[in-house]
């Protein structure tokens, strides 16, 4: 009766809906006690759908005859276009290694101490100054050092999302975030992405109707498409978040890696009302092995996230926080970023050139103005999960589109990362993929 009033539908409709849910095994009614969700059915569904978007790395085996299976796995991939890691040769590993040695000889106590749960104070201060250069003003009290932004997403999810809570994500989106929200039992709703990022025109209705707890977005050099959200859309999302009282996660792994002009202001810097939780990972620009990122939030939201961090690991390792500090605070950091942009632009241009020359005309993409990836759209009948099997035979990998969709999968896309392989490997890998595409289209 309550539900029929709330939803504005007749009692008969509500009863029928309950009957159908019970028939399909999702709920069970116990007379005198009430109606309960059947756990086993939920678990069965989860199992059927798979638990991780990284399943694509394993799932190719489903398509192979068992006889070929072992052989397939003996072939090591040589050309990883699936990985949006940075080529280690473009990162300041040597310098960081020296810094670790120096720090340990000068201050071996680092190993025998707990750091602050919130993160090393000097690093937080350094990050404030770093963010200020990107026109994002915040204070050390509102910064939490995390073990990468992956942990930031997880802390937010475990703090603010419970089973059945609605989370809005872009489609496609970053697979690692899908896994986190799925793991919390969230109901994930999606908004498609175009060349200007999330389709905000579709977001308002969705939010009015389903009242999400969280909107997760990668507005700058979106993973996987590379799109950049213009300032107008960023402001619209903030308005929607305000009117629906939901949080926005702005995940920003690589806004420093721009190839033309600087990207628009971060959503966090435009946020007047404290709805945005900003994540800045350092894996794509400095040292993924250090596992460091920061989270910026305010008020009680920040306090709750700090408590979650304490419960999770009592703080990010002090050793790696101290190791990156001298680099971040020196001029070297800005020089390094400049070089990184130049090197990655050369690689992006190379990939685009090969695609223009060798890919079939049915394949389309738009030019990423920064970031690490090119997102290809193929004719709808081509399944990139299948194409990946062919690519693996040539010792090449890419990220199939299926990994990036939280709900309805689209299988006719793929992501090529140009950040990990050198120019020779990129040339070989992308040319081979173009040939495979040609063969798939001619089939
Ligand atoms: N968010 C996005 C959009 C990413 O692409 C990645 C890494 N691929 C992460 C978060 C996780 O990064 P980190 O290494 O900082 O945990």
Task: Please describe what this structure looks like.
- This protein has 443 residues and is an alpha/beta fold.
- The protein is built from 17 helices and 15 strands.
- A hairpin with a 3-residue loop joins β1 (27-30) and β2 (34-37).
- It binds 4'-deoxy-4'-aminopyridoxal-5'-phosphate (PMP).
- The site of 4'-deoxy-4'-aminopyridoxal-5'-phosphate has 14 residues, from α8.
- 4'-deoxy-4'-aminopyridoxal-5'-phosphate (PMP) binds at residues 84, 148-150, 174, 176, 218, 223, 251, 253, 281, 283, 288, 293.
List the helices and strands and how they pair.
Layout lengths: L1 H6 L3 H13 L3 E4 L3 E4 L1 H11 L6 H4 L6 H9 L4 E2 L12 H14 L14 H13 L9 E4 L1 H13 L5 E6 L3 H9 L3 E8 L2 E2 L1 H11 L3 E4 L13 H14 L2 E6 L14 H4 L5 E6 L11 E4 L2 H15 L4 H12 L1 H28 L14 E5 L6 H10 L2 E2 L1 E2 L12 E5 L5 H20 L1
Parallel strand pairs: 3-13, 5-6, 5-8, 8-9, 9-10
Antiparallel strand pairs: 1-2, 4-11, 6-7, 10-11, 12-15, 14-15
Helix pairs in contact: 6-14, 7-14, 8-9, 8-13, 10-11, 15-17
The structure holds 4'-deoxy-4'-aminopyridoxal-5'-phosphate.
In what order do the strands lie side by side in the largest sheet?
4-11-10-9-8-5-6-7
Q: Biggest sheet: strands, sense, closure? A: 8 strands, mixed
Rg: 23 Å
Q: Name the structural class.
A: alpha/beta
Uncertain residue ranges: 44-50, 58-75
Q: Care to count the β-strands?
A: 15
* H/I helix tally: 17
| Through-space gap between termini | 57 Å
InterPro entries: Aminotransferase_I/II_large, HTH_trans_reg/aminotransferase, PyrdxlP-dep_Trfase, PyrdxlP-dep_Trfase_major, PyrdxlP-dep_Trfase_small, Tscrpt_reg_HTH_GntR, WH-like_DNA-bd_sf, WH_DNA-bd_sf
Keywords: Aminotransferase, DNA-binding, Pyridoxal phosphate, Transcription, Transcription regulation, Transferase
Family: In the C-terminal section; belongs to the class-I pyridoxal-phosphate-dependent aminotransferase family.
Protein name: PLP-dependent aminotransferase family protein
């Amino acid at each position: 009766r309550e539900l029929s009033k709330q939803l504005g539908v007749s009692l008969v409709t509500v009863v029928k809906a309950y009957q159908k849910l019970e028939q399909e095994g999702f709920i069970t009614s116990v007379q005198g006690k009430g109606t309960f969700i059947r756990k086993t059915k939920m678990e069965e569904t989860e199992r059927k759908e798979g638990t991780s978007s990284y399943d694509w790395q394993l799932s190719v085996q489903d398509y192979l005859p068992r006889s070929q299976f072992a052989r397939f796995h003996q072939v090591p991939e040589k050309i990883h276009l699936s990985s949006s890691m940075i080529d280690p040769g473009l990162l300041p590993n040597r310098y960081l290694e020296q810094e670790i040695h120096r720090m340990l000889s000068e201050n071996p106590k680092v190993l025998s101490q707990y750091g602050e749960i919130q993160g090393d104070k000097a690093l937080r201060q350094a990050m404030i100054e770093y963010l200020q250069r990107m026109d994002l003003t915040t204070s050390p009290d509102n910064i939490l050092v995390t073990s990468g932004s992956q942990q930031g997403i997880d802390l937010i999810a475990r703090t603010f999302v419970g089973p059945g809570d609605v989370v809005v994500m872009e489609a496609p989106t970053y697979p690692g975030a899908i896994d986190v929200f799925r793991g919390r039992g969230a109901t994930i709703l999606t908004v498609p992405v175009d060349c200007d990022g999330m389709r905000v025109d579709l977001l308002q209705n969705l939010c009015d109707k389903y009242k999400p707890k969280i909107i997760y977005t990668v507005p700058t050099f979106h993973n996987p498409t590379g799109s950049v959200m213009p300032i107008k859309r960023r402001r619209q999302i903030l308005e929607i978040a305000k009117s629906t009282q939901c949080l926005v996660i702005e995940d920003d792994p690589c806004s420093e890696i721009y190839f033309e002009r600087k990207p628009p202001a971060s959503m966090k810097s435009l946020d007047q009302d404290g709805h945005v939780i900003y994540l800045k990972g350092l894996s794509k620009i400095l040292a993924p092995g250090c596992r460091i990122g920061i989270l910026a939030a305010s008020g009680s939201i920040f306090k709750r996230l700090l408590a979650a961090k304490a419960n999770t690991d009592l703080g990010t390792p002090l050793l790696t926080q101290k190791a990156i500090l001298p680099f971040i605070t020196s001029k070297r950091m800005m020089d390094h970023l400049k070089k990184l942009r130049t090197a990655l632009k050369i690689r992006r241009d190379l990939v685009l050139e090969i695609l223009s020359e060798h890919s079939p005309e049915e394949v389309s993409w738009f030019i990423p103005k920064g970031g690490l990836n090119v997102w290809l759209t193929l004719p709808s009948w081509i399944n990139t999960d299948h194409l990946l099997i062919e690519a693996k035979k040539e010792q090449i990998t890419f990220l199939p589109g299926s990994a990036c969709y939280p709900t309805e999968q689209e299988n006719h896309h793929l992501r090529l990362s140009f950040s990990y392989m050198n120019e020779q490997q990129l040339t070989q890998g992308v040319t081979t993929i173009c040939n495979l595409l040609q063969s798939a289209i001619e089939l």
